[in-house]
Specification:
Number of helices of chain C: 16
Order of helices and strands of chain B: HHHHEHEEHE
Largest interface: A-C, 85 and 59 residues
Distance between the termini of chain B: 58 Å
Distance between the termini of chain C: 47 Å
Radius of gyration of chain B: 26 Å
Number of strands of chain B: 4
Chains: A alpha/beta (about 500), B mainly alpha (about 170), C mainly alpha (about 375)
CATH superfamily of one domain in chain B: Electron transport complex subunit B, putative Fe-S cluster
CATH topology of one domain in chain B: 3-methyladenine DNA Glycosylase II, Chain A, domain 3
Radius of gyration of chain C: 25 Å
CATH architecture of one domain in chain B: Orthogonal Bundle
Order of helices and strands of chain C: HHHHHEHEHHHHHHHHHH
Largest sheet of chain C: 2 strands, antiparallel
Structural class of chain B: mainly alpha
Number of strands of chain C: 2
CATH class of one domain in chain B: Mainly Alpha
Number of domains of chain C: 1
Shape of chain C: globular
Oligomer: heterotrimer
Shape of chain B: elongated
Structural class of chain C: mainly alpha
Helix content of chain C: 55-70%
Strand content of chain B: 5-15%
Strand order of the largest sheet of chain B: 1-4
Amino acid sequence: MFGLKSIRGGVHPETKKDLTSERSILTALPLPKKLYLPLSQHAGVESRPQVQVGDKVLKGQLVARSGGSLSANLHAPTSGIIAAIEPIVAPHPSGLPAVAMVIESDGEDRWKDLPTLNDPLDLSPDELADRVEEAGIVGMGGAIFPAAVKLRQGRRFEIKTLIINGSECEPYLTCDDRLMQEQAAAIVDGARMIRHIIEAYEVVIAIEDNKPDATAALKQAAAPYGMINVINVPTHYPMGSAKQLIQAVTGKEVPAGGRSNDIGVLVHNVGTVYAIHQALRLGRPLISRIVTVTGACVKTPHNVEALLGTPVRDLIQACGGLTAHPARLLMGGPMMGQIIPSIDSPVIKGTTGVLALNQREVNEHLPAPCIRCGRCVDACPMGLVPLEMAKHSGADDFDQAQDFGLRDCILCGSCAYVCPSHIPLVQYFEYAKGELRERRNNESKQEYTKRLMDQRNERVEREKAAKAAAKKAKKRASRKTKSPAESES
Amino acid sequence: MFTATLVLTALGLLLGWLLGVAAKVFAVEENPIVNEVESLLPGSQCGQCGFPGCSAAAEAMVEGTAAVNCCPPGGRALTEALAELLNVDLNSLGDAPVPQLARIEASLCTGCTKCYKACPTDAIVGATKQIHAVISKACTGCSKCKDVCPENCITLAPEPVTLNNWHWTKPEAA
Amino acid sequence: MNANADLPSPAPAGGGHRAAPYAHDRSSVERIMLQVCLALTPATLYGLYLFGLPAILTFLCIVLAAIATEALCLWLQGQSLWRLKDASALLTGWLLAMSMPPWCPWWLSASGAFFAIAIGKHLYGGIGQNVFNPAMLARVALLISFPVQMTTWVQVMPLGSDIAPGLSQSLAIFFGEQGIPDGFTGATLLGASKAAANGGASMAELASRDYSLGQSFVGNTLGSLGETSALLILLGGLWLLRARVISWHIPVSMLLSTLLLAAIFHSIDDSLYLDPWSHLTSGGIMLGAFFIATDYVTSPSTNTGKLIFGAGCGLVLFLIRTWGGFPEAVGFAVLFMNALTPLIDRSVKPRAYGRDRRGNAIKNISARKVQ
């Protein structure tokens, strides 16, 4: 019933999903002694701690509250004691410090009292959105945008299609695949709740056609509910990018600078949907997630259910440890993931995978000059001209770079993947985007300080004038009192 | 021969006339360039460039005695705008000074309010006999506070790199 | 933030690492260049067979001189000689050799190769920076400087045949001690048609009398190495298309525009204008369409741009062939369009997702706001 539209460009990297796709998710990992919860695991500002060092916390207890509109709540992944709130090395390529809450587990893993819940489908959408916010759920596909914000935005529009994104186009990653196979009913249940919240007309669960088992499981789970369609989309990177998936499913494009709401579509990742099910049906906040631990350097690659804050080292240990020193240790997939500075970096809400890749898998070479072959232009799913964008970014000519498409770039890495000269195109774009952001900040700061200065000058003038007036008045007054005496003499 | 001469003469006259018209019609009105430069500058009179204020710096830039990248708060964007306006080759410039932020060492501050009064952008908060603090969002790094501080407790340092402002550097060219 | 004293300091430049992606396909510049060379091999071997030992000497001389010049230029720029590995000089030399008369004396061959690499490529800043196709630039420079030598075409005399020159004679021809014997040379179809057009002879008559279309297509005809067998060049080109080294846009639009123009003019007056099939099978048009015009560096990078570029090449080619002063015009046509490439690239951009052709955001806002 769905005439699938093709997406532009894209690449077909080796999927390498067979490393983990046939093995079930490892649950019940040994409890880590210490968990590290960075206060910033979401799009917005840091969360604000609600507990103090030394406090005892229970599993699922709120430990840090959302610090602003795009921020999110944090909950204790296990029971224990707050050992410290201090900077740790952030799970981020910069290796910069980030403040984190360190929880020393007491080994009991005792839940807080979970509320007994009515059927969420009987509650009002606003109340459900509040609960999703309370549970600290963010986009689990790696976008880490607070789910409740997205739901509330969606409520303000007429959403025709709710797309549940199970495409998982990144090579290696199978966390969504396994979750769909093992928790199909929960995902369908979560999808129904989201539909209830945003009052969508129809639900489409879109899965890349290299996951027949997940498709079958969801089809079966969704069969009783008429408005949920499970469809296959072609295996084609970056199909999982929201914009591309919307194009493939609905044939519509999200207007540049706009949101999917504008065309009546909302996309949620299956991991997010599962978390929403957990929160609304069982009252459990987001304290764990499925992580694909894989790569040629991992002994027995697996998907694991990891508590947030678990050091990557523990996950790799659970998968038999490393067989060789990895050339690259990544969080996320190889196309858009990020290198992490240390094997002790903790799992955060957006950690879809932990990849320990060897040199052959990374296939990195020294860059050579661009030969203008245009393969990047063909590969770009957004219809941009990466070679020109990189050339102008390299020359710090950001206006030109924007003109050739930098403003629309989704950093999917398709261009750099195919570049025969091995030019790190995405890094050029990251650099240019960062510089542009810095300039914008600089400009707004300048405007701000200019305004402050004008205000100050005005104030100083006013004070001066007031002072002068007061002086004058005083003088006049003294002259007045003096003058009669003078006239007398 | 005669026609060729005639055609070329006519062509020359026509084109010359066109050029003349174009020069009149599309004439660019020359702005007083110093004003133009000054309007680009931040205007906070911070003095980090070493000149008493933005207009003095603008004059120096137009005369060529100051480099177009001498304004740290303006950053690279300003440098580029100025370089284009004043026709300066960007590659000929040395490293630009980095914008600075003031920081008050709380343990030394006596709350004398001198810095508070000197700050041109009201970036210092605090009252008499209370420790002062710098709002980095409003600080231009002009060092006026540092100059008046009797306790020498104000330092200027470049803005620290954090997760919020870090970004990938430019790849080394192939 | 005092507690971070024992943390590693923030790594400069992302720890010397690169940003994502941390995966890459197996492509490389070297692989692309070698694939093109491979596609040229059948036509080259056949051409070398047809023109014998002197042609082999010329071919080797051009290719080796190109590589030597590349090495020299890299060394002068203080760059690693490993750069030779990208095989770009090999390909440039090869393409030049394909477009030169088969029996070139060594000095003509070597200076052509030197011109192509040193002036055509490195003077512009090296690989990827040149505006014009280096091989064509060199060919045209030689054509203008040495018109006689560059238009001396030898008759087909396959290796091992009675008339083929022996080793000593070949060496003598190669080193310029002996000129090419008069009886060995002839005129190409396009050259003859030009002469015929000037002399007022009929095209149809000419084509049917001395030049067989079939022969020209298979390659049993005189010309440069790349002009002999249109068939083998076409096969090589098709393989490149299949291997996705080149895209169809430039060859198709170039061949089609030439074909179309030739067909139109031939139908207007078949005594004045050569028939379209002769246009397609003779001269370097196949080599030009599949191997020369498709040069990445000097052609547009977008598909629409490539179509425009190819059509332009075909147009200029036809114009020069028909009314210009030179019988063969692939080099000029490609160079002319090379000059327009930056302009095409500036003005033709693909339509970006979520935007219209002009780059404005599409107005596809169909969802009404819920109050």
